[in-house]
Amino acid sequence: MDKRTTASCPKCGGTWPVFETVVSPDTRPSVVATMRVTETSLVEEAIGQEVRRIGNSGPASAVRRFKATRRWTRHIEFDNDHTTTSSHGVKFTALVELKSSAEATLRRHFGGSEEIEEKFEEEVELSIPPYTTLEFVMDWKCIWQQGLVTGVDTTGVMIQFPFRAAVGLTFDQSTR
Predict the structure, then answer these.
(1) 98 lies in a domain?
(2) Which of 22, 30, 109, 130 has its CA 20 to 30 A from that of 164?
(3) What is the average pLDDT value for the chain, to the nearest integer?
């Protein structure tokens, strides 16, 4: 067996040594030099509808107050299908380390750990005319911050990871 044997990927053209000696993760030098987060846009995604029926069978207008409440999870998603790199010869281990560093950078940037459960509450006040039943409709939406995490390793290879982070929850309201 020739220790200099290499394999290549027919899709991306990348090459790597077949008989490369594996270095222990504890002794492997860090490949990450810098990480930068670029926020590009906020996007609202519909996540469901809630309808509440509120009636007033009396002869006078009534005011009803209630809390619109919903639990949600703050988390980050990477778009692995659109990850780009400045070099086709990036080793898989370097990619994994860059992605891991990107995830840690985003957690620090958005002030979270792996996943954080949050609770959204907003007080709502409705005026209901006499002898009327209203349907109060809440169209719930998750607010996503989209962007790119750009990493540069110690050899100058740049990699970009598109991401989206759940940063909030809201709803549009209507009555019928």
Answers:
(1) yes
(2) 30
(3) 82
Q: Which residues pair with 134 in a beta bridge?
A: 54
Q: Identify the domain containing residue 42 by its residue range.
A: 6-175
Q: Could you tell me which of 25, 29, 26, 31 has the C-alpha nearest to residue 90?
A: 31
Ramachandran sector of residue 111 (left: φ over 0; alpha: ψ -120 to 50; beta: rest)? left
Q: Tokens 């560093």 sit at which residue?
A: 101
Specify the amino acid at residue 153: D
Say how many domains are in the chain: 1
Q: Is 60 exceeded by the pLDDT of residue 14?
A: yes
**Domain assignment of residue 1, yes or no:** no
* Under 8 Å between Cβ of 54 and 125: no
| pLDDT tier at 102, thresholds 50, 70, 90 | confident
Apex 158 CA angle, 102 and 35, nearest 5 = 35
E strands of the chain, at which residues?
6-8, 15-17, 32-56, 62-74, 76-78, 84-85, 116-128, 132-153, 158-175
Question: So what's the pLDDT on residue 112?
Answer: 61
